[in-house]
Specification:
Number of helices: 8
Shape: globular
InterPro entries: AhpD-like, AhpD_core, CMD-like
Pfam families: CMD (PF02627)
Distance between the termini: 31 Å
CATH architecture: Up-down Bundle
Strand content: under 5%
GO molecular function, one term: peroxiredoxin activity
Protein name: Carboxymuconolactone decarboxylase family protein
CATH superfamily: AhpD-like
Oligomer: single chain
Largest sheet: none
CATH topology: AhpD-like
Number of strands: 0
Radius of gyration: 15 Å
């Protein structure tokens, strides 16, 4: 499948993409560790089958110095020993917040309690917004058939300039 539309080459699409990227700045500037933010982005992108986003967040993690073992085990984080309890809580929130159609109750009380244990209200707001934003980005990527492989670390930062 070929990409359907290049948002950045379309006047309205470019305006939307820039505003979308700027809205994400609130999240990236939060006190949630950058690695946790990228792990959340990667896991949601894997679930949603977004090749472009999976490529981007894998490369951002690697560029930030994350060990390959952590990046490679994100998809199976429950069966891995390389993630902290706080990261596991964030990954559970990402999964349950992404799989809304699979779980009629949305995010479980157990997951919410785990998140509350490790993050303050501002960090929780950032994580909830992160899950919402990455799911929106994934939907854009999947609908438009954006392919993984061409992302270069730092492209997100340049998009908000």
């Amino acid at each position: 499948m070929e990409p359907r539309l290049d948002l950045s080459a379309n006047e309205l699409g470019a305006k939307f993409a820039k505003r979308f990227a700027n809205a994400s700045l609130v999240i990236t500037q939060s006190t949630v560790p950058a690695a946790t933010q990228e792990l959340v982005n990667l896991r949601a992108s894997q679930i949603n089958g977004c090749g472009w986003c999976t490529d981007a967040h894998t490369k951002e993690l690697a560029a930030a110095g994350e060990p390959a073992v952590r990046i490679n085990l994100v998809a199976t984080w429950r069966e891995a020993t390389v993630f902290t309890e706080a990261e596991q809580a964030a990954l559970a929130l990402a999964e349950e917040g992404t799989r809304l159609a699979d779980a009629h109750l949305g995010v479980s009380d157990d997951t919410w309690a785990r998140v509350r244990k490790h993050y303050d209200d501002n960090q929780i707001a950032a994580l909830v917004a992160q899950v919402a934003m990455i799911n929106a980005a994934n939907r854009l990527g999947v609908i438009l058939h954006q392919k993984g492989g061409s992302y270069e670390p730092g492209m997100f930062a340049r998009a908000t300039d």
